[in-house]
Design goal:
The chain is an alpha+beta fold. Helices cover 30% and strands 29% of the residues. The chain contains 15 helices and 20 strands.
Length: 489
């Protein structure tokens, strides 16, 4: 049986994907940072029709098309979408592989008759993709190189067996998937189409350009095989248990969950992974299902430690007429290499993480937070608040001048001069100063427009009062006023 391959090219994959998710009207382009400037990485058909081209600078493009709409290019999202399309294309054949960042190659040998023939398969494939919003160009030929050439530089469609050589001859050299530098060198010699390359002695070309041009030519003509390597399947981190009889007792569900956790943790251990979020799906006999989800403050694959975390969710479970299937999946994971469990502090860290897990599953992961240092001399910006379950504690905070325990918006007080007043009234009370220390000058962050710091630099003083309170006062040299900004412990 002759080998048959289908090359699928999505020439506007990035822009089509972005517009499919968030449509806009008018010329549209994706923008990426390249060579120190913003450049066009993907174009809609309307933008290209108005004279824009990939690689053009964004400033030049806007001068040519003032109403151009843009979004940042996202190669990672495009790679994920292409992988999803590859899985979708398995409906046509069992062998599908990515072909560059915007294409797929399908080995349809022996599979086309299931769709009514090669032409019917090609029409069905391109028709479905076009209804999804993707512009497509595709071809079927006996070699991967010939199918790619016809999809990118030819008329597409179906190339009959034995016709690859004839249809390739008038195509440009770029149809052989050569490097741009090689194409430029060949064109300087007057070689512009595939037929020109065939008529040149192979030895002379190999001496000057290496084996690359001849290898690509042989692959396209079928003299050299080019396998299609299917996309690797992502490892599955889900396990299932089908029960011989429906169960409704809590002990039976706990026993099934224990078996699922043991199997799942074994999969995770082989992959060097740890679970961060687990989902337990319980299917009832009436067709309904219950979904229980727990999060973990640290990557785990210890079945005995993970099972009690489901207790609160299982307490209120309605089993209906019985549970007949159970499925447990690790929907979020991270690498968990083997660690030395006797290292100092490891047990304490695990105990803290387990405490966070219990608290977060009870009140919500976003409600248990910790303070983290931030790179700023301004006291109110010297820290950030993050979710405790997704951050590590900082043991040694950067050394700075003492900061008050309580901060509040500056509250003006009466005072003159560059030293703190000896007496002042604040919050309805008269205060008497016994000692002062300072000043500490803090400048605003000029690269940020903070309305609270538009008055300029501040001179901060620590003020001990007769009443016992230690206050944080500041004076702005540009004005004569004083303010209280915080209190120390």
């Amino acid at each position: 049986m002759p080998r048959r391959l289908l090359s699928l090219w999505l020439p506007r994959f990035g822009s089509d994907l972005s517009l499919r998710r968030n449509p806009v009207a008018g010329p549209f382009a994706l923008v990426m940072r390249s060579r120190g400037a913003d450049r066009l990485a993907g174009l809609s058909a309307e933008a290209e029709a108005r004279g824009l081209a990939r690689g053009m600078g964004l400033a030049d493009a806007r001068a040519l098309v003032p109403d151009l709409l843009t979004r940042p290019d996202d190669p990672h999202a495009q790679a994920q979408a292409l992988a999803a399309l590859g899985r979708w294309a398995l409906r046509y054949c069992p062998w599908v592989a990515p072909d560059g960042p915007d294409g797929l190659v399908l080995d349809i040998t022996g599979a086309a008759h299931l769709m009514g023939g090669e032409a019917a398969l090609l029409d069905d494939l391109t028709g479905r993709l076009e209804r999804m919003g993707f512009e497509t160009r595709a071809a079927i030929a006996e070699t991967r190189g010939a199918a790619w050439a016809m999809a990118h530089f030819g008329a597409g469609g179906v190339v009959a067996p034995g016709e690859a050589r004839r249809v390739l001859m008038p195509l440009p050299l770029a149809a052989l998937r050569l490097e741009p530098e090689t194409i430029e060198g060949l064109e300087r010699l007057g070689l512009r189409i595939v037929r020109d390359l065939v008529q040149i002695p192979r030895s002379s070309l190999a001496r000057r350009f290496g084996s690359g041009p001849m290898m690509r030519l042989d692959q396209a003509l079928g003299a050299l095989s080019e396998p299609v390597s299917p996309m690797p399947e992502a490892p599955g981190f889900a396990v299932r248990l089908s029960l011989p009889e429906p169960v409704g007792l809590r002990d039976d569900i706990d026993a099934g969950l224990a078996r699922l956790l043991e199997r799942l943790c074994a999969h995770l251990e082989r992959a060097g992974q740890g679970a961060r979020r687990l989902v337990l799906e319980l299917s009832r006999v009436d067709g309904s299902a219950a979904h229980l989800e727990i999060g973990l403050a640290r990557a785990m694959r210890d079945a005995d430690a993970m099972q009690p975390l489901f207790a609160a969710a299982l307490d209120g479970l309605d089993t209906g007429f019985g549970i007949e299937r159970m499925r447990l999946s690790a929907v979020e994971r991270e690498a968990q290499p083997v660690q030395q469990i006797t290292s100092a502090g490891a047990e304490a860290q695990d105990a803290l993480a387990d405490l966070l897990t219990r608290l977060c599953n009870r009140v919500g992961f976003e409600h248990v937070q910790r303070y983290m240092p931030a790179d700023s001399h301004i006291a109110e910006k010297g820290f950030t608040i993050t979710a405790a379950a997704y951050s590590d504690p900082v043991r040694d905070w950067p050394a700075t001048s003492p900061r008050p325990l309580v901060l509040f918006p500056p509250e003006p007080i009466a005072g003159q001069g560059r030293r703190p007043p000896q007496r002042f009234r604040w919050r309805g009370q008269d205060w008497r100063v016994t000692s002062v220390s300072g000043p500490e000058r803090i400048s605003p962050e000029w690269w940020l427009d903070d309305p609270a710091w538009r008055s300029g630099i501040r001179d901060y003083w620590q003020v001990q009062t007769e009443q016992g309170a230690r206050l944080w006062l500041f004076h702005t040299p540009q004005s004569s006023g004083w303010s209280v900004h915080g209190t120390f412990a």
